[in-house]
Design brief:
It is a single chain. The chain is of the alpha+beta class. It is 17% helix and 43% strand. Strands 5, 6, 7, 8, 9, 10, 11, 12, 13, 14, 15, 16, 17 and 18 form a 14-stranded mixed sheet that branches.
C-alpha cells in the first residue's frame, strides 16, 4: 500500500466496514449514522481500489440525512445513502447499491423493511422493501426518456462496434444511454474496458447500456419481457450489474416495442438477473442483496 493510500486510510482507522453485492455489483459499506467520518473522493477511491484497498464498484455510507450536506432536502432523521463511485466521484443513485443498503440497514440499524422504508439519495427519495429470502425491491422514482420521436436521440461508439450505433437517453435519477444490438455475439464482442463515446456528449457523463432482446413469456397470465445487457458505468467502468441501468434498458426496449410491450422485464446481467416493473411514471427494481464479510480498517 502506497504512502498516499495509507494517509487516506488514517481517516477511517478502527472503523468497521462490510462488503456486499447485488448481482455481483459490489460495494464497501460503512455505518456512520451521525456523519463523524470525513468522506472525500480520495478516500472513497482508496477504499474501492481492488489492489491497495478493500475493492468495490462503489462505496456506500449509511448516515442520517441531517448529518450530511447533500441530505439537507430530506427529514433530518431519514437515512441517506451516501454513494461514491470507484473513481471517487459521487453518483445520484445506484439501484443494486440500494438493495445492499437495505440489507445493511436491516442488520446494522435493526430497521424493519417489510412494509417499505423511504431513504434519501442524491437522486431523490427512494423506497426500500424487504421481500424475503434475501430479495429486495427498490422504488426507483420517476423516469424520463429523451425527446426522440424516432426512438433515438444520440449515437454511441465503443470498442468492438464496427460503427456508431443509435442510442436513446433515459434518466432514472441518473443519466443513461441505451443501445440495441442484434445478437448475443455482438454483445459479447464489446470491449468495455474503456468508456463508450456518446454524441451529443452529456454534460455530466452517462452510463451506457447495450441490450439484446430475449423474447418474452406469460407468468400467471401476465406478460413479461426478457433482455440481456452489459453496461459501462460512469465512474466505475464495466460492472457485473447495474440496477439503474436495468431500469433504463427496460424503459428503452418497451419504448421501442410500442403499445404491445409488457411492463415487467427480466433483465439478465453478467452477475445474475434482476426484474424491473414499470408502474406508470415510476419503476421498481427487484433482486437479491448479499452481505459477504465484515472487517476493520487497520492501516
Amino acid at each position: 500500500m502506497s504512502d498516499s493510500t495509507l494517509s487516506q486510510f488514517e481517516a477511517v482507522q478502527g472503523l468497521r466496514f462490510t462488503k456486499g453485492h447485488g448481482t455481483l455489483n459490489d460495494f464497501v459499506l460503512i455505518f456512520d449514522e451521525r456523519g463523524d467520518v470525513n468522506i472525500t473522493g480520495d478516500l472513497a477511491q482508496a477504499i474501492c481500489d481492488r489492489r491497495g484497498g478493500i475493492g468495490g464498484d462503489g462505496m456506500i455510507r449509511a448516515v442520517r440525512s441531517g448529518s450530511v450536506e447533500d441530505g439537507a432536502a430530506f427529514d433530518a432523521d431519514m437515512w441517506f445513502m451516501d454513494y461514491w463511485n470507484a473513481d471517487g466521484s459521487t453518483s445520484e443513485m445506484c439501484g443494486n447499491g440500494a438493495r445492499v443498503f437495505a440489507a445493511y440497514l436491516e442488520r446494522e440499524a435493526g430497521e424493519d423493511l417489510t412494509g417499505g422504508m423511504r431513504i434519501g439519495t442524491r437522486g431523490g427519495v427512494r423506497t426500500l422493501t424487504a421481500l424475503g429470502d434475501g430479495q429486495y425491491a427498490v422504488g426507483m422514482g420517476t423516469w424520463a426518456i429523451g425527446d426522440a420521436p424516432d426512438g433515438f436521440d444520440a449515437e454511441v461508439t465503443a470498442d468492438g462496434l464496427a460503427r456508431a450505433h443509435p442510442a436513446l437517453s433515459v434518466n432514472v435519477g441518473n443519466p443513461h444511454h441505451v443501445v440495441a444490438l442484434p445478437s448475443l455475439d455482438a454483445l459479447a464482442a464489446l470491449d468495455l474496458t474503456t468508456a463508450p463515446g456518446v454524441q451529443p456528449a452529456p454534460p455530466h457523463g452517462s452510463n451506457v447500456e447495450f441490450v439484446v432482446t430475449r423474447g418474452g413469456s406469460m407468468v400467471h397470465g401476465v406478460p413479461r419481457g426478457r433482455v440481456r445487457m452489459r453496461v459501462h458505468e460512469r465512474g466505475s467502468g464495466e460492472t457485473q450489474s447495474c440496477g439503474t441501468g436495468a431500469c433504463a434498458v427496460a424503459l428503452a426496449v418497451r419504448e421501442w416495442a410500442g403499445d404491445v410491450a409488457p411492463d415487467i422485464w427480466d433483465v439478465e446481467v453478467p452477475g445474475g438477473m434482476v426484474t424491473v416493473r414499470i408502474e406508470g411514471n415510476q419503476t421498481v427494481l427487484e433482486g437479491p442483496a448479499v452481505l459477504v464479510a465484515d472487517g476493520v480498517f487497520t492501516p
